[in-house]
Design brief:
3 helices; globular; Thiol Ester Dehydrase, Chain A; five-stranded antiparallel beta sheet; two-stranded antiparallel ribbon; alpha+beta; about 20% helix
């Protein structure tokens, strides 16, 4: 079932989603024999935008390592609307939605060079201790600090 609505609810009073858009070109190694983007690569495209967003908000991998935390994907989903073709330029938009838990809810939109919607999707990541391997119930320190800046409107995204 394809969704045309948002994957995540925006709670009343919550800050607006944080978003970045990255531009890329579909490489030869990312297509099938018909020069169409292989369906499994869409999650990689999402990851490229997600990585850029996390860097901009101060939650890159170096921060995770410093605090001995990880945020594995526990749920992912892709809705496909139209294929990307070899050498086509496209954009991937990642939007991080507010929540109070120890998780990251990110929605994605892929748009082709002609402006048409090609795919949407989402990922949910849960935080856990890198050494303890225990799920964190409360947001870890760097996430809580980022959310304070988010609420204050001081994140430069």
């Amino acid at each position: 079932m394809r969704r045309n609505k948002s994957y995540f609810k925006t709670e009343p009073g919550a800050p607006a989603p944080l978003a970045v858009t990255v531009r890329r070109r579909l490489a030869f190694s990312e297509v099938d024999a018909m020069a169409v983007a292989w369906h499994g690569n869409y999650l990689r495209f999402f990851e490229a935008a997600h990585t850029e967003l996390m860097q901009k908000i101060g939650l890159g991998f170096a921060v995770y390592a410093k605090y001995d935390i990880a945020a594995p994907v526990v749920q992912s989903h892709v809705d496909y609307f139209a294929p990307l073709m070899l050498d086509e330029e496209f954009t991937v938009r990642a939007e991080l939605f507010w929540n109070d838990g120890a998780r990251l809810d990110t929605a994605y939109t892929i748009t082709g060079s002609d402006g048409t919607l090609r795919a949407t999707g989402f990922t949910v990541q849960m935080f856990w201790g890198l050494k303890s391997r225990e799920v964190l119930i409360f947001p870890p320190e760097p996430v809580a600090a980022m959310r304070e800046r988010w609420c204050a409107g001081t994140l430069n995204v």
